Recover the amino acids of this structure.
């Protein structure tokens, strides 16, 4: 086993610095020079002895506790459990090895073990910026010698692979209710969200109820006015298409557009499955990258997440026609088709328009794209220089292209969703709830 690497402590550095005082006085006499040399040699010898007497890696056992699946964009807890395997006390510092680019807090901390307290726990958090696979490295221990002059730097093999999924914990029922309320604060709108085309039950008439829902036969039997209560239909297919082409490789609000799209798609899938609908997913670029046919159940949400957590944007053109042909060659049942893409690129909008509008009236297409607030600000801001004026002109042209494409889609019966990154998932969910409450599918 390796002896580790010696690391002088702050006390050793301070003693070496103290030896500089007689060295500076050496001009007054050679005795000061010899005193400085003697002090340096003494510190070096003490440090060498302290390093040899310092605890070894075998004196400490380290175990990392972390969930095998982490959530991107939020702080995930990690614990390092240290236990004493020998009889003598051990003190020092522990540092966990985390990949670069991951926001980590508290992964390096001091610890102390003794026969009276043979165990210690070091807790910290890490926040992965994106989905995918993450490799946590070894744990590094700096074990301080008995004199406190030198420490032994050792590495404990604890390498571990974890998966980073999109954050689904934020979409609780309360969070969903807030998302709906943010778009529909009025009582009238909230009441409409419970409407549908599938009969649920009968209840007594209340002021404000639609007379068309009155059940006259039931009213006659019971001697009071009764109305039918409807709920949104269940078991309807919802197909999520994710564009993984070059349009989704750009960054908005510090993350790739595709990352925002995957988060929104999985949140929409969660809500749809909880509502009793069937959800499928298709990820594509120039060809189909992943496909899961519409299914129901909680287990299906896990499969959807598994299929998308490694999705990456490729620097190639997306083939919308191939994606649509692949999806609907396997099912012709009327579906809600939600396409997560970028409508800013005018070159790709022509093909997208033609193939998306061809879905009508058999299916109900929804095109969801991110609102780049920086681009919008550049298109409407007052330029401060010639360069800003050129940037404003280019941004305004892109904004006009988007508005033209969106208007064509809406005029043809498709739905268009555009929202900033922070509200993208909620906007997609609210569009689905609107479709279900109005019986549009």
């Amino acid at each position: 086993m390796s002896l580790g690497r010696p690391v002088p402590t702050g006390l050793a550095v301070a003693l070496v610095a103290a030896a500089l005082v007689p060295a500076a006085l050496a001009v007054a006499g050679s005795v000061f020079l010899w005193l400085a040399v003697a002090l340096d040699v003494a510190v070096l010898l003490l440090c060498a002895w302290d390093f040899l007497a310092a605890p070894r890696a075998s004196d400490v056992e380290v175990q990392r506790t972390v969930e095998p699946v982490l959530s991107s964009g939020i702080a995930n807890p990690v614990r390092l459990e240290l236990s004493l395997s020998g009889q003598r006390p051990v003190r020092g510092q522990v540092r966990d090895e985390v990949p670069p680019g991951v926001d980590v807090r508290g992964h390096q901390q001091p610890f102390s073990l003794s026969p009276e307290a043979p165990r210690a726990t070091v807790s910290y958090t890490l926040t992965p910026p994106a989905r995918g696979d993450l490799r946590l490295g070894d744990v590094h221990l700096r074990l301080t010698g008995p004199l406190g002059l030198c420490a032994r730097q050792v590495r404990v093999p604890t390498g571990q692979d974890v998966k980073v999924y999109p954050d689904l914990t934020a979409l609780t029922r309360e969070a969903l209710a807030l998302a709906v309320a943010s778009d529909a604060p009025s009582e009238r709108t909230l009441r409409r969200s419970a409407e549908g085309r599938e009969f649920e039950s009968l209840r007594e008439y209340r002021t404000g109820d639609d007379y068309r829902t009155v059940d006259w036969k039931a009213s006659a039997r019971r001697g009071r006015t009764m109305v039918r209560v409807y709920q949104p239909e269940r078991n309807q297919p919802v197909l999520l298409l994710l564009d993984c082409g070059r349009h989704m490789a750009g960054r908005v609000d510090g993350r790739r557009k595709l990352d925002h799209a995957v988060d929104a798609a999985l949140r929409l899938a969660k809500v749809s499955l909880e509502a009793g609908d069937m959800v499928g997913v298709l990820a594509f670029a120039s060809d189909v990258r992943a496909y899961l046919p519409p299914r129901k159940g909680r287990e299906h949400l896990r499969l959807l997440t598994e299929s998308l957590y490694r999705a990456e944007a490729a620097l190639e053109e997306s083939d919308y026609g191939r994606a649509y042909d692949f999806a609907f060659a396997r099912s012709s049942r009327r579906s809600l088709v939600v396409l997560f893409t970028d409508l800013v690129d005018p070159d790709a909008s022509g093909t997208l328009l033609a193939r998306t509008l061809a879905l009508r009236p058999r299916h109900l297409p929804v095109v969801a794209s991110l609102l780049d607030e920086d681009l919008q600000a550049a298109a409407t801001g007052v330029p401060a220089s010639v360069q800003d004026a050129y940037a404003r002109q280019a941004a305004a042209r892109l904004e006009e292209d988007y508005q033209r494409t969106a208007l064509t889609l809406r005029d043809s019966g498709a739905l268009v969703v555009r929202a900033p990154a922070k509200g993208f998932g909620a906007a997609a969910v609210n569009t689905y709830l609107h479709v279900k409450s109005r019986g549009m599918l």
